[in-house]
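During the reporting period the student researcher (J.K.) took over the structure-prediction task from the postdoctoral fellow and processed the backlog of single-chain submissions. One of the processed entries is reproduced below for the supervisory committee.
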Amino acid sequence: MTHHVDLSVKPDVKAFFDPATNTISYVVKDPASQSCAVFDSVMDIDYAAGRITYDHADEIIGYIQSNNLKLEWIIETHVHADHLSAAPYIQGKLGGKIGIGDKILVVQDTFGKVFNEGTEFQRDGSQFDALFKDGDTYKIGNLDVFVIATPGHTPACMSHVIGDAAFVGDTLFMPDGGSARADFPGGDAGVLYDSIQKILALPEETRLFMCHDYGPNGRDIRWETSVGEQKAHNIHVGNGKTREEFVKSRTERDATLAMPKLIIPSLQVNMRGGTVPTDKEGKPLLKVPVNAL
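J.K. obtained the following structure tokens:
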């Protein structure tokens, strides 16, 4: 797999941290052109008030416009359970294609049932412009992007390898943060361990970019590490931890975690590619399924 990695190609990466959800979104630019992609954008929601706003997305849009960049892709590394995607909003302003892993169909089927969605909810991934399969490639300008399926946190998780950089979604956190939970519907700790091994098989110098950071033990927020650092120091999988050890510790830890505050709106919106569902009159409306998660 590592033959796809060209460490001499170094994409320009600009990070945008969203303190409300501890999410890091990225603008990834081809150094040889004005082409770029956005990874894991955030739409703001005041859930108590049912109010959606776009400050975070507007900051990204402003950055792209002020640098005269051409947006080619809006990528979701997975169906996020802790924030709402701003992909359609950004696409409406700047164009570009929205892409996600092809296992979105599994996620749509699972949560279509949880949210009791009728037949008008398409479960075929048609809300997205591109569905990536394991091993697929696409381009951002002249940059080759190589897609690795890294399920376990969710079935549709994908990591995107671009030159010496990889965007791993929630598969890994910073070394002192470990890994993401594996107890959502469709998650699996053993599968997550196997996916992490795929990432750790990349060259040691590969830059890894996280989708979340919570600043464990009060340290400053960080989002960039390397394969070498993760192999040596990751508290959940580093230093040769076995699959068995990982599954045991991950499962025990997951049993203690509360549901993310925004899981109910996030899943409804993100399984639709970032579009807010509507009632019969066409008004935006979110459901709260009771005792279903």
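The committee noted the following: The chain has one domain: 8-270.
J.K. will present the remaining backlog at the next meeting.
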